[in-house]
Amino acid sequence: MKKNLYHLFAFLTFLSLPGFAQITSDYDKTIDFNKYKTYTFLGWEANSDKQLNPEDKKRILTAFKNEFTARNMTLQPNGGDVDITLYIVVDKNASKSSYSSYNGDLGYSAGAWGWETGMSSSQTAYTDNHYMEGTIVISLFDRTTKKLAWQGIMTSEVKEDPAEREKSIPKKVKKLMEKYPVKPSKK
Q1: Domain count, the chain
Q2: CATH number for position 140
Q3: Residues whose CB falls within 8 Å of the CB of residue 107, separated by 6 or more in sequence, listed in order
Q4: 67, 177 contact by CB (below 8 A)
Q5: Whether 17 contacts 92, CB under 8 Å
Q6: Cα–Cα distances in Å, from 23 out to 30, 63, 179?
Q7: 81-138: pLDDT as tens digits
Q8: Is residue 45 assigned to a domain?
């Protein structure tokens, strides 16, 4: 029983780690997304890209371009089958966790000099982790109907080290694009 509780605690701790990406998406199920062959990037909503440095902006745009290319879609400056917008927000955040362990047992036992009282102890570890959390929203609009066709939202930790962001941004965008109704083509 204790082992099962430990595994449950470890799993819940993993889910609460700031590096864990939360991804949701929604789309119009009446649309055949395979018909979309071109897209136009309309820009960043509400100038949200002002929070990004030029390199991170480039990393994000390149990662999305690679994902759409893998789905046989081509970027066009104007008049694509779909229009795409991005929105991003970055906030300071903190996670708190604690773990308590209990050692020993209070009770009586037979000892060398008669009955002895046993002592117990417990120990609690508390951690407070500060980090940056980013949320990115990609919205894809059908150019003909002007209606939202697909939207993906991801919330995740923003790595402080630029080298880590260079690795993590494409991975996270790929994970988000797994929710897109068209899977990457196998080449």
Answers
A1: 1
A2: 3.30.160.670
A3: 117, 118
A4: yes
A5: no
A6: 22, 16, 8
A7: 999 999 999 988 877 888 787 766 555 555 566 665 556 667 888 788 878 899 999 9
A8: yes
Domain that holds residue 85: 21-101+132-177
- pLDDT tens track for 25-75: 999 999 999 999 999 999 999 999 999 999 999 999 999 999 999 999 999
Helix (H, G, I), strand (E, B) or coil at 163: helix
Cβ-based burial of 177 (10 A; exposed 0-12, middle 13-18, buried ≥19): buried
> Under a CB-based contact definition with an 8 Å cutoff, are residues 82 and 143 in contact?
yes
110 in a structural domain: no
| Structural domain includes residue 26 | yes
Largest separation between any pair of C-alpha atoms in the chain:
92
122 touches 136 (CB < 8 A): no
Assigned domain for 109 exists: no
pLDDT digits (tens, 9 = 90+) for 74-92: 999 999 999 999 999 998 8
Q: In the numeric block, which tokens belong to residue 60?
A: 């994000």
**Could you give the CA distance from residue 45 to residue 43 in angstroms, rounded to a whole number?**
6
C-alpha span between 174 and 127 (Å, rounded) = 31
